[in-house]
Design the sequence.
């Protein structure tokens, strides 16, 4: 039977770049890059018949410890810019603003966006260099989760940190000390707890999250995980984890501009050893904010 893409896809993990964040992105890449802004994404969605995309603010890039000076104004301006894009294209775009949880101003930024156009907040642990083995970092992150929960802001987290030993221990700390502080909002773990591809560290963290995946508020996205460079036996292990989590809790997402939705969906079909009905379910799963 020939596998077919569903009539309508939703991308649950894409990034939009303003002119300012695009400059930062180019500086980090060390080369000029084409624009990755609203017009470009809407073109792709139109061409590929993708009904919606969840766009994540890269405001955290302005507050990264990699910069000589964290720029809180830049972070806020990026969130403001994204809010305008989502307002203008609210039929196609759903937005998440972003923060650096280690900045003391992050609670204020959460409050600024309570009851706003945004569905929730994006946290990027590696970019903000949050270390789950550092007690004060965990405390700050936990208070961010608690405040988001109070404000009814859903959370999308890139959980993988820069710690070279990232894995089981980090996932355990996250579950016990952080996730427990946001019991009612939905928490989407990006890239299946990794940061692109599927290595041992990612598997170790994901395997630790599996027994907790029956928590009703925990969901996962598949963005940037399945690549040609990931070996076949790793992809089989990944499928085992996906089944243990529950097919209904896995969302389709790309990490655009890394992939376009159609290209990534076709890669999943070709590379991931799932049954075709399982993949169809994943491609048709919707988070509450895209339903
Ligand atoms: Zn991403």
Sequence:
């Amino acid at each position: 039977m020939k596998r077919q893409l569903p009539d309508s896809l939703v991308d649950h993990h894409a990034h939009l770049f303003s002119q300012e964040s695009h400059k930062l992105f180019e500086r980090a890449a060390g080369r000029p890059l084409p624009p990755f802004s609203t017009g470009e994404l809407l073109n792709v969605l139109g061409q590929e018949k993708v009904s919606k995309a969840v766009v994540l603010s890269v405001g955290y890039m302005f507050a990264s410890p990699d910069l000589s000076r964290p720029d809180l104004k830049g972070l806020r301006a990026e969130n403001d810019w994204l809010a305008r894009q989502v307002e203008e294209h609210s039929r196609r775009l759903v937005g998440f603003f972003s923060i650096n949880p280690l900045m003391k101003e992050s609670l204020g930024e959460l409050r600024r966006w309570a009851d706003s156009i945004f569905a929730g907040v994006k946290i990027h642990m590696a970019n903000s260099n949050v270390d789950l083995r550092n007690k004060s970092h965990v405390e700050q992150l936990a208070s961010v989760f608690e405040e988001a929960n109070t404000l009814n802001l859903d959370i999308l987290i890139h959980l993988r940190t820069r710690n070279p030993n990232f894995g089981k221990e980090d996932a355990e700390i996250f579950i016990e000390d952080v996730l427990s502080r946001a019991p009612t909002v939905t928490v989407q773990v990006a890239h299946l707890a990794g940061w692109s591809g599927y290595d041992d560290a990612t598997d170790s963290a994901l395997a630790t999250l599996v027994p907790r995946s029956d928590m009703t508020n925990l969901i996962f996205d598949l963005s940037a995980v399945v690549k040609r460079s990931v070996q076949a036996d790793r992809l089989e292990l990944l499928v085992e984890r996906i089944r243990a989590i529950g097919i209904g809790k896995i969302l389709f997402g790309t990490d655009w501009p890394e992939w376009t939705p159609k290209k990534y969906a076709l890669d999943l079909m070709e590379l991931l050893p799932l049954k075709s009905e399982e993949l169809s379910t994943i491609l048709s799963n919707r988070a509450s904010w895209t339903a």
